[in-house]
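Sample pair:
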Amino acid sequence: PTYYIDSHHPKVIEFANKHTKSGDKEIENAIRLYYAVRDGIRYNPYSMEPFKESMRASFVLNKGNGYCVAKAVLLAACARAQKIPARLGFADVKNHLTTKRLMKLMGTDVYIYHGYTELFLSNRWVKATPAFNLELCNNFNVKPLEFDGTADSIFHPFDKSGNKHMEYVKDHGVFADLPWETIIAESKKSYPIYFENLERRSKDFSEEALKENK
């Protein structure tokens, strides 16, 4: 356990136990945890806050929503609670799922320190990205990202219509714990408008996406 990946927290352990089966293979439980976090915790890009406690796995779980980094932290914590080695990976990406409102706040189509989880399964590290829940993907007309425990699950390069979807432009590497001070400092420099007024943020990103993509 770490401060952010608090896999020893009772609520994290409870959630992890609820979505796994005792006696099953690690890979099977890892897959269950992936989908539990992907679809059980709603993706919310408006949830980034400049407070370190907001990035603890237990906090994200209790809140029920979070952006990509928060959900990656939660998946890592759940995996560690089940004795599955886990770490965090980060990369800058383009063509990230966004709306006109979010794009205006971010001021760019490059999203820095996009987060994913790496799980150690069958003697190798496998990437898993639980960010976008199924409902949100449907509202954006984007294929949901699946995970089978054997292949890296990062992002489909195209949406359901064959249009270019997402690409990774810079790799920041992997970490045993969340480098929050670095991420929040770089985010404030890259997205100053986003942090100017937290109250201006949308309350439902999924609904916002649905209205734009009807």
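The helical segments are 10-18, 26-40, 57-63, 68-81, 100-106, 134-140, 180-190, 205-212.
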